[in-house]
Amino acid sequence: MAEENILLIDNTVELASLLKADGYQIIRAKNGIEGLIKASQSRLDLVILNQACLRLLPPELAPLIAQLSYMPVLVLGHRHESSEILEMGADSFICSPPHPRELKAKINSILRRKRKPPPEKPDGGNSKNTGRNMPNLKTPLGLTPTENRIDACLKLNQGHLIEYQSLINTVWGKHTVSLDTLHYYMRRLKSKLSGSKIIQQRGVGYWLG
User: Which residue stretches belong to region Disordered (predicted)?
Assistant: First the structure.
């Protein structure tokens, strides 16, 4: 019986049922924002993102994949977009809808690689990790992890107002954070992303124009 925890970002029940039948512990999210929240609150071994069901185009997937870059990510989607999605940092790709046997093989392959210990240096220490456990390698323009989460949340909701508390819940999860802290990080993010049009609706929230 498998014991790994898989975050499934998908708005259907078929995939969840299929994975549960194989014994995986499934944590479900219906969209990217909910996925980011649950990823910050859970111990995960793998993220499966169903692009076709969420109707996300590769440019829209980029901030979500970047934010989840510290854990293995398997994307289900359209065959002609596989190269582009892998170049964004996804660990593996499979066409949607997947054949159950192929999906299981992909998952097992990813999890086997994840279980392997890192190679040792000649001096006996662990080699420097240059893979997906180094999220700062994907952080643009020197953003901190918190600023990167805010940036991802704004991009995933571009053109839509995000209320203050919703933004705080997405970025900090269960931690209690004041509005002053949110505004402080937003000012820092604006100064670093001078080309981005981050707009504040006073007393309500922020949105990316």
Answer: 109-142
